[in-house]
């Protein structure tokens, strides 16, 4: 059976940084009659800074920046790619698929399409790429993401209630990331499992741009019921994680690092404690980089490799959490 191994991973972060204090100042400047309590954003999230792309930069540009670095490091030309998947919550436009913009900017001339599932987009993109490699249809697949959630942040706030429903936007960060999967005889991805409770889709949305709200600017901002989202994930519980370990016959200490999607430090601590994750194996990136959406997991894996926390032959765990709601687990041997 064909296996899919990670032949490389890279990330790109915009140089412009925005502190949580600056977030509050921006809200204060744009909002008549509402002033957020000083320090509330960092106190509630643990985020000190996040990355903001320039207005001229598109989601595809961030994906391309990461992909160019990845391909150079791997010694692979864009012409040698068999398939490109753009896997992101963001997109350049509704049509065509952003994967085509990525291919055009890279100079790739292969099939391309998008995979979208909120912050689990990359994890699902890897799932799709692995399956296509396993069938023998492709040998080398680029999974790339470019996230520009800063475009959907509400800066003009009427009152505390609107501030609360818009709060997730103040955690988000722009980023690009890319992972190269290649056919291999051994190693690579050896477990993947996903669960969803789609009845909870309304707890977190970015409603605009689709058939429900095609043009109304009011629907172009993130809206989230934080307590309801947390309750939805608590209802899923640790059973999917326990089942993944049991299926692989492993424990968390068998992994060099554990990459986990991160929204706020209190949520992360709850997950680590509740699931029994060894804290020293978890790659924590949230305080200095914010919520990188679907770029979180590849950025954490790239960071772990650069820091020497993981190396070829090691096992790594990828745990994704996303609106919808969905949870995914993937185990990989590097």
Automatic annotation (TrEMBL):
From its record, what is one biological process in GO terms? secondary metabolite biosynthetic process
Q: Does the keyword Ligase apply?
A: no
* Positions of the Beta-ketoacyl-[acyl-carrier-protein] synthase III N-terminal domain: 113-197
Give the UniProt keywords, A-Z: Acyltransferase, Transferase
Q: Where is the Beta-ketoacyl-[acyl-carrier-protein] synthase III C-terminal domain?
A: 245-333
Name any one GO molecular function: 3-oxoacyl-[acyl-carrier-protein] synthase activity
Q: Which Pfam families match?
A: ACP_syn_III, ACP_syn_III_C
Q: What is this protein called?
A: 3-oxoacyl-[acyl-carrier-protein] synthase-3
List the taxonomic lineage: Bacteria, Bacillati, Actinomycetota, Actinomycetes, Pseudonocardiales
């Amino acid at each position: 059976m064909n296996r899919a191994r990670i032949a490389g991973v890279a990330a790109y972060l915009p140089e412009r940084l925005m502190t949580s204090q600056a977030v509050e100042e921006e809200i204060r400047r744009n909002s008549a009659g509402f002033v957020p309590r000083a320090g509330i954003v960092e106190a509630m999230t643990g985020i000190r800074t996040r990355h903001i792309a320039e207005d001229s930069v598109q989601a595809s540009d961030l994906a391309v920046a990461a992909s160019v670095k990845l391909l150079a490091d791997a010694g692979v030309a864009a012409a040698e790619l068999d398939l490109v998947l753009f896997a992101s919550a963001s997109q350049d436009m509704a049509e065509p698929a952003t994967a085509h913009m990525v291919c055009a900017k890279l100079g790739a001339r292969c099939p391309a399409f998008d995979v979208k599932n909120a912050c689990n987009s990359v994890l699902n993109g890897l799932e799709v790429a692995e399956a296509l490699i396993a069938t023998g249809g492709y040998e080398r697949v680029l999974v790339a993401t470019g996230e520009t959630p800063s475009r959907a942040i509400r800066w003009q706030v009427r009152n505390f209630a609107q501030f609360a429903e818009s709060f997730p936007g103040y955690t988000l960060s722009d980023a690009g990331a890319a992972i190269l999967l290649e056919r291999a005889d051994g190693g690579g991805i050896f477990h993947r499992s996903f669960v969803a409770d789609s009845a909870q889709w309304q707890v977190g949305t970015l409603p605009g741009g689709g058939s429900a709200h095609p043009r109304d600017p009011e629907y172009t901002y993130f809206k989230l019921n934080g307590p309801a989202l947390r309750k939805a994930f608590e209802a899923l519980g640790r059973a999917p994680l326990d089942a993944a370990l049991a299926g692989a016959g492993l424990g968390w200490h068998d992994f060099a690092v554990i990459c986990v999607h991160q929204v706020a430090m209190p949520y992360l601590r709850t997950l680590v404690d509740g699931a029994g994750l060894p804290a020293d194996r978890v790659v924590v990136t949230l305080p200095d980089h914010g919520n990188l959406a679907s770029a979180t997991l590849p950025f954490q894996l790239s960071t772990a490799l650069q820091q020497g926390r993981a190396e070829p032959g090691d096992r790594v765990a990828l745990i994704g959490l996303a609106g919808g709601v969905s949870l995914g687990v993937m185990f990989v041997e590097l």
